[in-house]
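Hi P.,

Sorry for the delay on this. The queue was packed all week, but I finally got your sequence through. Input first:
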Amino acid sequence: MQIQTTKNSKVSPVVLVYGAAGVGKSYLANPKNCDRPIVIDVDKGLSSLREFDVPFVSINNAKDIQDCLQQAKGNFGYSEGQGFRTIILDDLTEMGMMWLRQNKASFKNVMQAYGELADWAMQVIHEFRALSELGYNVVFLCKEEKIQDHTTGGLIWSPQFPGKQIQSMLDYLVGEVFHMEIYVDPADENQQKHRVFRTVRTPQIAAKSRYGKFGELEYANLNSIFSRMKEEV
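Then the structure:
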């Protein structure tokens, strides 16, 4: 067993971005914003990308997810150093809903169905996250909802996933959890709107960064986010 050091240890280029409908989550996959993207399309909502030539794989069932993972592990058939660099799963919320629509009726006990969903989703998240070890940047997109904060008892915006098991664990499964929102600088006379990532938790919004070197608000540019995560200390 080799003893290693934390000095300049690698930060896994994996982020979860969640936010309200229409804030521009799917638009993050445009090639100006991220390096050689491919979208794993569960949500069927890529109309905002029509001006770009963005490859995507349409997902209709759990088997499609597994097939996609296998293709990704094989670099989608490309030679080494070629092919895609950023994998964007759009989105986790709809992935869970898809599984329930197709499988819940086969369970007599609804709670058992949610337990099976949690086990399946946990494995899928782990496998997509592991793609970062093959050189991919990995992005999970997610819808948002207000849930009860177990610490304060108040309501807080959080990534949405059917069933409490996975939803309560998303903070632990992914190191970077960003809330995507629209920001207007009060000092800007033109009141220009910017898409930003909130990286620090507030009493009303769940967010975190294990990387620890982002500002509270960062421009919603995945190229910038990933390049900084890969910098040496």
